[in-house]
Amino acid sequence: MARVLSRLAAWTTALAILCAAGTVPAAASTTGPSPAAPPDIATAPTLVASTSAGDVGYREVGAGSPVLLIMGFSGSMDDWAPSFVDALAAHHTVVVFDNAGVGQTASLPAPLTISAMAGQASALISTLRLGRTAVLGWSMGGMVAQALAVLHPRQVSRLILAATQAGTGKSLPIPPAAQAAAASSNPATVLSVLFPPDQAAAEEAYLAGILQYPGFYGASAAIKAQQEAAIAQWMAGQDPAGRRLSRIRVRTLVADGTQDALDPVPNDLLLARGIRHADLRLYPDAGHAFLFQDAAQFAPAVGRFLR
User: Fold this and answer.
1) Shortest CA distance to 195 belongs to which of 186, 184, 182, 183?
2) CA–CA separation, 12 vs 166, rounded Å?
């Protein structure tokens, strides 16, 4: 535990320096990992795709049918637990990328919206020629995934919505204290709303995993503020794509932890009931980061869902 806390302190210092300087890891000039290499997202190079919606920083690992992972509020590609990504990459080509204004991904015109972020994700799919791809969105990323399925349905083959809310204006609000904790500049505070208090081992394992990335970074304070506004607009039912939830026709898996401090279970029920052909899976004693806490069960469940 002492070593983990020491690494957390180092991460906090590094994150503060990176955010203050606006520094992110340089893009690699090399190609992606060899198809024969075992999946290892932590060492995959950061590449930059020149899309119709600006440059998008991304990484790719694995082989097989494509799966696009969309990150949530304030996060970067470095917030995906490597073990979770590598488990999916054992049977799929997994692409992770940074949302607008994060890392080496171009900012979008203000005001930032969930639909605009979906448009940038669509542009990445087109540029990488992924065709119809399975899309997994976590938290805010799940909102972007919904908008992508509504606005660009021909690009989405399957939809996995993890710990996220519908944009119909009917979702329960994010509890203010939890929202403030998620927006904190203190990583320990952020982690406290991702895992239930009795899941310290899972929290430590997640932290140890993401610290495998060389040069952890996240969204700047300015981008976090833009994302908060986009989330608020979505949840208020003011983003047109969010109000068209019932138009999602692809098979969808809605999943969350029963102890999610940021997204009460009734929101999961609302989301699952609003989408045709949606399955709901809830993980007991798990929180907003259930997909990492219970990766041993959730990753195989995703694999079965994608068959």
Assistant:
1) 182
2) 32
Up-side HSE of residue 108: CA atoms within 13 Å toward CB?
Answer: 22
pLDDT tens-digit readout, 127-144: 999 999 999 999 999 999
* Distance set, CA 144 to CA 121, 127, 191, 254 (Å): 8, 18, 22, 14
Angle between helices 200-210 and 2-21 in degrees, nearest 10: 50
Strand partners, 60: 95
Cα(285)–Cα(137) distance, integer angstroms: 21
Q: What letter represents residue 84's amino acid?
A: F
Domains and CATH numbers, the chain: 2-10+38-305 (3.40.50.1820)
Calculate the dihedral angle through the C-alpha atoms of 135, 90, 87, 51, rounding to the nearest 10 degrees.
Answer: -40
- The two structure tokens encoding residue 1: 């535990």
The Cα 122–Cα 149 span in angstroms is: 10
| pTM for the full predicted model | 0.90
Tell me the pairing of strands 92-97 and 54-62: antiparallel
Calpha distance 240→188 (Å, rounded): 35
